[in-house]
Amino acid sequence: MGESLNVGIVGCGAISGQYLRTIERLPQVRLVAVADLDRERAREAARPYPGVEVMDVAALMADARVQVVLNLTVPAAHAGIALLAVEAGKDVYCEKPLAATGADARRVLAAARAAGVRVGCAPDTVLGTGIQTARAAIDDGLIGRPVAATATMMTPGHERWHPDPGFYYAPGGGPLLDMGPYYLSSLVTMLGPVGTVVGAAARTRATRVIGSGPRQGEEVPVTVDTHVTGVLVHESGVLSTLVMSFDGVATRAPHIEVHGERGSLVVPDPNRFDGPVLLSRLGEEGARELPVSAGHADAGRGVGLIDFLSAPEPRAGGTLAYHVLDVMESLLAAAHAGRAVDVESTCERPAPVALGDPAARA
């Protein structure tokens, strides 16, 4: 694609602002078009960017200038928009999850392979200095052989602050599919793919009450599990314990910990790009913060687009995203069946990210 990348955004909701701020500071990436079912919302998104055209989805897909479709629609629409982009011969980068179901994700990847186009997918927070510094510490042997990890996300639910939270409690939502991709993508990046899962799940309330915005006080139905816990058996033999919940008030547990034979790491919030990595070594008192040693510095959502400039497979890529989705679906299946479930897919650990400013990379 040369030295620049032309992007068209489909979906101009709340998350699009974060992507737009990243695109602003990446000289290699240029926004050329936006589309949304709400045309006024698309106009608002495009207004600060002279020359960016507001289109309908069909026109954006047909525009020869658009090289990558940035798919920021709600999870239920991810697969449909991705398939339209692939059919138009364009690379596509999706907000997480890759699709609402594994079956839809497989369709997207199969169509992309047939068309010879690439698929990327959030979260690209795994490319930041937080997760990459932790990965480098593991790869450098600072904790010895990894044996276990924990990952914990506990919140009362997004309806407290989101003005239209229904999709969080519909298929494709819930704490596991909403927040799990951050934690699982990080675990796979650090510890490799998952082979088997066991789990349990619960749904504590049938409805949720919107806490802000024009629909404040309105109830939305809950059709997904809102507390999920499980054990992931990585192909390497590492055991990761996962808790994802929209039912708890708070937790003081670290977001992620990784334990090895000679040390333990506290890993920063995988929903962020940075944060301190703390190392406790066998025989040493206390924990020390590791110097930042890897990853995109000062990164924001959308930095995964950088890999579309040169990488055959984006680090925040479709294969990793599908494996993460497969792990999540397998965990829910295990929870409902009350038995261990083998994860059918696998993936390679994405290549590490050298320390540097993404705005300076091509």
In short:
With 362 residues, the chain is an alpha/beta fold. The protein is 28% helix and 23% strand.
Structure commentary:
Residues 5-120 form the Gfo/Idh/MocA-like oxidoreductase N-terminal domain. This is Gfo/Idh/MocA family oxidoreductase. Residues 131-266 form the GFO/IDH/MocA-like oxidoreductase domain. The protein is of the alpha/beta class. It has two domains: 5-121, Rossmann fold; 125-296 and 317-342, Dihydrodipicolinate Reductase, domain 2 (2-Layer Sandwich), CATH 3.30.360. Helices cover 28% and strands 23% of the residues. It has a nine-stranded mixed sheet with strand order 16-15-14-13-7-12-11-8-17. Helix 5 (102-115) runs antiparallel to helix 8, helix 6 crosses helix 7 and helix 7 crosses helix 8. It is globular, with a radius of gyration of 20 Å.
